[in-house]
Fold this protein.
Amino acid sequence: MRAAIYARVSTLRQAQAQTIDQQLSRLQTHVQQQGWSLDAAHIFRDDGYSGATLNRPGLDDLRDRASMADFDVVVITAPDRLARRYIHQVLLIEELQQRGCTVVFVERPMSTDPNDQLLLQIRGAVAEYERTLITERMRRGKVAKLRSGQLLPWTRRPFGYQLNPEHPRDPAGVQIDPYEAAIVQQIYAWYLADGSSIYGVIKQLKAAGISSPRGNICWTNASVRGVLTNPMYTGTAYGNRYRTVPARQRRSALTPNGSGQSYTLKPRTDWIAIPVPAIVSQDTYDHVQEKLSHNKQTAKRNNTAHDYLLRGLINCGQCHLTTTARTTAQGHHYYACRGRSEAVRVAEGRACTARYIPATQLDTLVWKDICEVLTDPAIVTQALRRAEQGLWLPQELQSRKATIEQGLASSERQQTRLLDAYLAEIVEFAEFERKRAEIARRNETLQAQLRQLEAMTAQHGELARLAHGIEEVCKQLREGLEQANFEQQRALVELLIDCVVVSDAEVEIRYVMPLSRAGPQRRFCHLRLDYRACLS
């Protein structure tokens, strides 16, 4: 029988201690005792990868080889080496068995006996509980060290400072890097100059040949803003500043939110101050913050002197970035892709080559399409009723909702298994209570995430409940759409359109509701091929 073995350790320290080699040695011995054959290409290992995630190169390789029927049995020391979460263990075991591979655990052999299956489930739940407990202990220990001034709130060396290489997170070893500190001071001075902006500072840095903190030839807006807004440079670094929240703002309608998480500042009372050497004065820092606030209010993106019907709703069909509205000195209005002028893209030769979009012609084209939809309220009513039945939601929200619902279902199963284990006198009452409380807290967190997700989809549900109202609005607007002022047109555009994707050959108008049975798969309702004719 052809065998494969898999070993994993969670941390680099364990990898350096050669515990993974001990696992592999035991697994190879077991394979030899069983008389199975083991090819060197079928030894899979993950050094320093957490069992809480499935994103592991060795595990991915194992699953790929199993799909090609390269071996008949997979030998692992224990279930928690395969995965920490019970649901991941079940998923992987079922996947391997469906591909004709038997999974063998050396320390905890698995059988089809119901009692053994129950014990395996309990061990998986305990391993998941231990993982959560370790994470919480590490978080509390980190906060305690921050409060006692024994730990810096950095995982990477900040620009402008040098750290003790032997103890990189020891506050006592922080020193100012003279060269980088001079650059920080220069950035502050440039920005405080009359008429300067962050983009102007970026151009000056590039002209001076100064590389970014990561060694790139051009600084980004975020890196310069990070230097200008970091209070660390005034002599105080702050830990415990951020908390994770579900991602709510997308960079572009065509760009997903990635991990689905973002960071928000905690109340200032929760921040933990750690003194470090100062590079700029508090007075200089305060003046920069005042100018940043003033420039934000007067920025071109907030300039409403000109009426752009599709402001903030257009995406480039070539690079998928959003567009900005601009008016030339001759009074011509355009939508321009941000990829044409982003400093990094320009410096690296990746500037978008999409043409400027005549704003007046495109606004007219989209408004005409909206009028056609509103003239036939049956289309809108049908779409809203489909939304009311839950037959359509944006794909990102559908995926996140499904993940949360799977997590809630897993919590319910864990509660049932835990109760069965307690009734079978496998676990003591004290341990039962601790695990039950942990599962309840996890379930509460998932419920909170689900409530946030439902709030994000409230717009779709509200539209569905107002189906009859929309019909009445359509009747009232049918004769007056051509006379609607800009504010009324803009209100309808924001209500009905998710985004407009423009390329050299076509315009896609993507509505917030499905106008056909393909709604769940296609996020747009009309594909306009007369772009050139209308915009020429």
